[in-house]
Amino acid sequence: MKRVIGIAIGIAYLGIAAFTLSYSTGSWRAGHADIGVWFTVIAGFLAIAGLGAIIGTWLHTSESKG
Predict the structure, then answer these.
(1) Is the sign of the CA dihedral 9, 57, 14, 39 positive or negative?
(2) pLDDT digits over 5-47, tens only?
(3) How many CB atoms lie within 10 A of CB 9?
(4) Cα angle at 6 between 4 and 8, to 5 degrees?
(5) pTM above the 0.70 mark?
(6) CA distances (Å), origin 23, targets 5, 7, 10, 13, 33
(7) pLDDT at 45
(8) Is 24 exposed, middle or buried (0-12, 13-18, 19+ CB in 10 A)?
(9) What pLDDT score does 66 carry?
(10) Vertex 10 angle, CA 36 and 12, to 5°
C-alpha cells in the first residue's frame, strides 16, 4: 500500500510539472521570457521531486535480498 501511495504522489508531481511546462511554453510564445524562464525552472524542480518520490518509494519499499 505504501508503494502505491508513493508512486501515485510521484505521478501527481510529474503531472503538475507537465502542466507547469506547458504554461511555460505558452509564456515563451506570448513573448514573456521572464515568466517562461521561471516556470521552466519550477517545472524542473517538480520533475525532480516527482522522480525522486517514485524512485525513493521503489527503493524503500522493496524487500532486500541477502
Answers:
(1) positive
(2) 999 999 999 999 999 999 999 999 999 999 999 999 999 999 9
(3) 15
(4) 65
(5) yes
(6) 27, 24, 20, 15, 12
(7) 98
(8) buried
(9) 54
(10) 60
Grid coordinates standing for 62?
522493496
Residue with cell 502542466: 19
H/E run at residue 48: helix 33-61
pLDDT exceeds cutoff 80 at 3: yes
Terminal C-alpha separation, the chain: 23
As a dihedral over the C-alpha atoms of residue 25, residue 26, residue 28, residue 30, rounded to 10 degrees, the angle is 170
Q: Quick one: DSSP state of residue 32?
A: -
Q: Is the pLDDT of residue 48 over 90?
A: yes
Amino acid at 16: I
